[in-house]
């Protein structure tokens, strides 16, 4: 019963005149940071730490968390309109978002993405709230064997992400991604792998420059070579038309509520894996949507499901990442680590007793995520209109500006020239992959999950021996993985047969 | 037509570049001439002081730097810009600080435990010599503690030393502090432990301890505090401060107290010395003496500024000020390991071959 009570209390606090302005200002800041390519929620929160010293605990938490919550929306808008992920977590949106813009459906894509973001975040914290009474036990269910199995399950989506009939190319792309993930100092052996004597490679390739390279820089190369504008079909430039499209997109998402739920569930459960972040979840959700769709061949050509799936997953991750933070004061992601720093400064000690001692703050945080996302969604829809006009500019004007912004974004995170070079190199690779039809999402899934698999396999073997997968949860996950693989193989065989019989 | 256009563009780029470099050269020339003629306070006034943090925003070192920055501004008259330059486990930023122009406008915080181990073991890629840094001072030491999980029957270091079974100790990456502490103490104190490394971060080891797959871990006292307060973990051993029990942990034995031999004590004192160097701030070698003194004084004032102390307390960041001179002595003494075999032990610990 305390959950209902707490929720009511939390809502009243969150919308009180003392907190609401901070929530809105925080969300606006987050949205802006999200729109700028390369800058992430993590960055937004780190920059806000100096401001919270004089704040009250509730105010500070609202301010910081609202900013973090709205970042995904800003990033989504950039991804759809400018073929550039505003943050790493929106990279998967690039698969169908820009294609929709090209077809003149920018408004629809944005409407769908914003709504999906909000519903995803809502789902994530809803699950979190339901689990509150048993949250600690749920978090402790997941250890290295379970993380390993989840990562392997996610890897199986590589098979789906290739274009039809091109499974081999998808697998090659995935393997290439795995190969690149092993660059740097191995956490298990301490060996420096593929570093070529470069100090910059010791910690491995950072995710954001690689993502921006493979998806954004390559897109700029493509655009420069093709010419024309981001939006090919300027069907109706009237602002009303865009608004109508946005509303249409909203309805698209609501109508596909079942897809939103499934993708959100993927996001929330992947959020439980420490240090994984939201980008992989978005790609896995995309793979899932493609796999279960009746028209998988439409994915990648600007289908609205391809936008809804990743956007609902990337915000649902927060529910999972918050779980261990709330249950034990153990951060589930780098952003949550910063949140914990902020909480300490605010005089709240986040630890194993956090939920007992600060239940009011827990509910306030839950509401902040929901309301911050709502503000982000509404504002994201509002800024879409003026920003969308830019997409009608011809590419010779747009590409230099966008490329500068993208490269600055990669530089700013670590003040490293090297990251700019990484983005450019991977830009060329991404462009080649695009032209030759090698799946870029498969590449990214391999890239982000490689280390996760290695690390957790080693830990599982060391801790539980070679039968580590015999525990109930990891066994279940393994069976699910096998089922998915068998399903895929059977489907492929069937398609092959159909093609053969058609050929005759 | 297109080629012509290209040639035109190329020319423009070349000319533009020439103009740029000329302008930059003139500015630099003027700058150095001006720099030499001024007293330090006047020199620093209004300048930009770059403060390098060798880790990503939001981490422990970053928070220390960002809390200090406004007070460095106040006492130097500069505008302090914190630059995060992560890479190579913090070594990249340290290299960057060491090789910055020696004009006193670049300083950097570092994880000196890592810096010492890297230099000591001759890791490839080290482009600094700790004995030559212009040390500005130290912000804090690392008090290290070995903690066990709630419910463990290993309630004291004696029980651990006499345990009849293998006790699993969790650690992050190979060669990191949590790992080096665990393997060195294991070797010196003959602990029946198995060090399991490869966890993502020390919070991830915490989760492992809560799940029960790991029984203990080494960590800094400040980071273990919340778990200890909540009763989920308890400390059984500490690294101490200058060889004695730290005032924050008076009831927990230091590892010197249980070391079986003199040799073991010397190994441990090298380890403890590293943790004493912990979180210092340095400028590149060879900066003008008067500027170094000015920076050291400004650092002293900032570290004792009531506003700063209050913020550090709020952020639960312990402080142990040490002057630049003393820091320089400390680093030298830690790096002077007399016996070759002790050095070998550290090399093995970092490489994971113990």
State the main characteristics:
heterodimer, A: 504 residues, mainly alpha, two-stranded antiparallel ribbon, 2 strands, 73% helix, globular, B: alpha/beta, D-Maltodextrin-Binding Protein, domain 2, 3 domains, 6-stranded mixed beta sheet, 5-stranded mixed beta sheet
Note down, in words, how this protein is organized.
The complex is a heterodimer of chains A (504) and B (354). With 504 residues, chain A is an all-alpha fold. Chain A has helices at residues 2-14, 20-35, 41-48, 57-82, 97-102, 106-131, 135-141, 144-155, 158-161, 167-181, 207-226, 239-255, 257-271, 279-292, 305-328, 334-345, 354-357, 359-390, 395-414, 417-436, 440-464, 472-503; strands spanning 184-185, 192-193. A two-stranded antiparallel ribbon of chain A has the order 1-2. The N and C termini of chain A lie far apart (66 Å). The model of chain A has no long low-confidence stretch (mean pLDDT 86). Chain B is α/β, with parallel strands linked by helices and 354 residues long. In chain B, helix 3 links the parallel strand 1 (48-53) and strand 2. In chain B, helix 3 crosses helix 12 (289-303), helix 3 packs antiparallel against helix 13 (306-314) and helix 7 (177-189) packs antiparallel against helix 11. Chain B is globular and about 70 Å long. Classes of the chains: A mainly alpha (504), B alpha/beta (354). The interface between A and B is large, with 52 and 53 residues.
User: What is the N-to-C succession of helices and strands of chain A?
Assistant: HHHHHHHHHHEEHHHHHHHHHHHH
The top-level CATH class of the largest domain in chain B is Alpha Beta
CATH topology of the largest domain in chain B, anyone? D-Maltodextrin-Binding Protein, domain 2
Distance separating the two termini of chain A: 66 Å
Radius of gyration of chain B: 24 Å
Please summarize the sheet with the most strands of chain A: 2 strands, antiparallel
Structural class of chain B: alpha/beta
């Amino acid at each position: 019963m305390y959950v209902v009570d707490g929720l009511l209390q939390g809502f009243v606090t969150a919308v009180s005149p003392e907190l609401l302005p901070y929530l809105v200002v925080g969300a606006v800041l987050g949205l802006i940071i999200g729109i700028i390519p390369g800058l992430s929620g993590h960055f937004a929160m780190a920059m806000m730490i100096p401001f919270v010293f004089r704040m009250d605990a509730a105010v500070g938490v609202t301010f910081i968390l609202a900013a973090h919550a709205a970042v995904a929306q800003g990033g989504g808008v950039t991804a759809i309109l400018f073929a550039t992920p505003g943050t790493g977590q929106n990279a998967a949106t690039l698969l169908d978002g820009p294609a929709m813009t090209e077809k003149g459906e920018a408004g629809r894509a944005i409407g769908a993405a914003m709504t999906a973001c909000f519903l995803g975040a809502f789902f994530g914290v809803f699950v979190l709230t339901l689990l509150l009474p048993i949250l600690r036990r749920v978090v402790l269910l997941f250890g290295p064997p379970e993380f390993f199995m989840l990562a392997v399950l996610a890897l199986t989506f590589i098979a789906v992400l290739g274009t039809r009939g091109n499974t081999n190319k998808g697998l090659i792309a995935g393997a290439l991604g795995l190969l690149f993930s092993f660059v740097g100092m191995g956490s298990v052996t301490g060996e420096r792998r593929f570093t070529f004597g470069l100090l910059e490679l010791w910690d491995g390739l950072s995710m954001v420059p690689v993502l921006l390279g493979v998806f954004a820089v390559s897109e700029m190369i493509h655009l420069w070579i093709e010419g024309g504008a981001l939006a090919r079909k300027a069907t109706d430039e009237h602002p009303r038309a865009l608004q109508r499209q946005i509303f249409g997109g909203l309805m698209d998402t609501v109508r596909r509520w079942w897809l939103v739920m499934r993708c959100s569930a993927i996001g929330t459960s992947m959020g439980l894996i420490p240090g994984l972040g939201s980008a992989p979840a978005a790609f896995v959700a995309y793979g899932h949507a493609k796999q279960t769709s009746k028209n998988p061949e439409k994915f990648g050509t600007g289908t609205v499901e391809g936008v809804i799936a990743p956007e609902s997953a990337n915000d649902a991750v927060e529910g999972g990442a918050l779980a261990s933070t709330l249950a034990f004061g153990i951060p589930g992601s780098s952003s949550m680590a910063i949140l914990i720093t902020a909480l300490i400064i605010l005089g709240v000690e986040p630890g194993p007793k956090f939920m007992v001692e600060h239940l009011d703050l827990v509910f306030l945080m839950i509401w902040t995520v929901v309301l911050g996302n709502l503000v982000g969604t509404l504002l994201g829809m509002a800024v879409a209109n003026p920003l969308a006009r830019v997409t009608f500019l011809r590419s010779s004007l747009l590409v230099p500006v966008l490329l500068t912004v993208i490269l600055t974004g990669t530089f700013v995170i670590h003040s490293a020239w090297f990251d700019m070079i990484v983005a450019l190199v991977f830009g060329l690779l991404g462009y080649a992959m695009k032209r030759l039809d090698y799946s870029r999402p498969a590449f990214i899934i391999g890239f982000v999950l490689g280390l996760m698999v290695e690390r957790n396999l080693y830990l599982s073997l060391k801790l539980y021996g070679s039968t580590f997968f015999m525990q109930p949860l990891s066994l279940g996950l393994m069976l699910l993985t096998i089922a998915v693989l068998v399903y895929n193989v059977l489907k492929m065989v069937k398609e092959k047969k159909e093609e053969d019989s058609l050929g005759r | 037509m297109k080629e012509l256009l290209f040639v035109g563009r190329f020319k423009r780029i070349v000319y533009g570049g020439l103009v740029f470099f000329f302008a930059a050269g003139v500015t630099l020339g003027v700058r150095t001439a001006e720099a030499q003629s001024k007293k330090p306070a006047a020199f620093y006034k209004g300048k930009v002081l770059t403060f390098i943090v060798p880790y990503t925003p939001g981490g422990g070192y970053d928070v220390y730097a960002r809390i200090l920055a406004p007070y460095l501004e106040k006492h130097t008259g500069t505008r302090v810009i914190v630059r995060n330059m992560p890479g190579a486990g913090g070594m990249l930023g340290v290299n960057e600080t060491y090789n910055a122009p020696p004009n006193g406008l670049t300083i950097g915080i570092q994880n000196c435990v890592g810096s010492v181990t890297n230099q000591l073991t001759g890791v490839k890629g080290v482009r600094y010599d700790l004995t030559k840094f212009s040390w500005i001072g130290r912000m804090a030491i690392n008090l290290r503690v070995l903690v066990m999980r709630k419910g463990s029957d290993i309630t004291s270091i004696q029980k651990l030393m006499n345990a009849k079974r293998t006790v699993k100790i969790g650690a992050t990456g190979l060669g990191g502090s949590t790992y080096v502490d665990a393997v060195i103490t294991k070797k010196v104190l003959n602990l029946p432990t198995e060090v399991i490394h490869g966890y993502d971060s020390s919070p991830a080891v915490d989760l492992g301890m809560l799940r029960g797959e790991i029984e203990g871990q080494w960590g800094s006292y400040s980071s273990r505090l919340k778990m200890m307060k909540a009763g989920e973990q308890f400390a059984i051993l500490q690294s101490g401060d200058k060889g004695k029990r730290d005032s924050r942990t008076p009831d927990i034995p230091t590892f010197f107290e249980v070391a079986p031999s003199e040799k073991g004590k010397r190994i441990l004192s090298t380890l403890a010395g590293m943790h004493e160097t912990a979180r210092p701030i340095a400028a590149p070698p060879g900066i003008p003496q008067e500027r170094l003194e000015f920076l050291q004084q400004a650092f002293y004032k900032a570290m004792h500024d009531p506003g700063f102390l209050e913020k550090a307390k709020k952020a639960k960041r312990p402080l142990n000020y040490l002057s630049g001179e003393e820091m320089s002595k400390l680093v030298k003494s830690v790096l002077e390991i007399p016996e070759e075999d002790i050095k070998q032990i550290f090399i093995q610990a970092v490489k994971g071959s113990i």
